[in-house]
């Protein structure tokens, strides 16, 4: 598994604490940013990087995309 940056680790941890571990429990970038207490842009960049690493899945919805952690991802 690839090394994670500090913000990526924080985002994965926040998602796990929010319960975003399955598609039906996905959270928005806003939800995750509030939990992390970091700017949404920083969290969004981390979510994109985590998606590229296969650790986070993005689900496109009508209003805001939802994100959840893959079962194999750990912070």
The chain-level mean pLDDT equals: 90
Strand order in space, largest sheet: 1-2
Report the span from N to C terminus: 11 Å
CATH topology: Arc Repressor Mutant, subunit A
Q: Shape, please?
A: globular
Radius of gyration, taken over Cα atoms and rounded to an integer in Å: 11 Å
Integer count of domains: 1
The count of DSSP E runs of length 2 or more, i.e. the number of strands, is: 2
Question: Helix- and strand-based class?
Answer: mainly alpha
Give the class-level CATH name.
Mainly Alpha
As a percent range, the share of helical residues equals: 40-55%
The CATH level-2 architecture is identified as: Orthogonal Bundle
CATH superfamily: Winged helix-like DNA-binding domain superfamily/Winged helix DNA-binding domain
The biggest sheet amounts to:
2 strands, antiparallel
Low-confidence residue ranges: none
What order do the helices and strands follow?
HHHEE
Instruction: Please report the number of helical segments.
Output: 3
Topology record:
Elements: H1 6-18, H2 29-36, H3 40-52, E1 56-59, E2 66-69
Antiparallel strand pairs: 1-2
Helix pairs in contact: 1-2, 2-3
Key descriptive features of the protein:
single chain; mainly alpha; Arc Repressor Mutant, subunit A; 75 residues
């Amino acid at each position: 598994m690839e090394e994670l940056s500090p913000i990526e680790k924080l985002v994965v941890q926040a998602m796990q604490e929010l319960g975003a571990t399955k598609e039906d429990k996905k959270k928005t970038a806003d939800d995750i940013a509030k939990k992390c207490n970091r700017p949404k842009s920083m969290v969004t960049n981390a979510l994109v990087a985590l998606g590229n690493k296969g650790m986070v899945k993005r689900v496109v919805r009508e209003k805001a995309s939802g994100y959840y952690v893959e079962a194999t991802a750990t912070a």
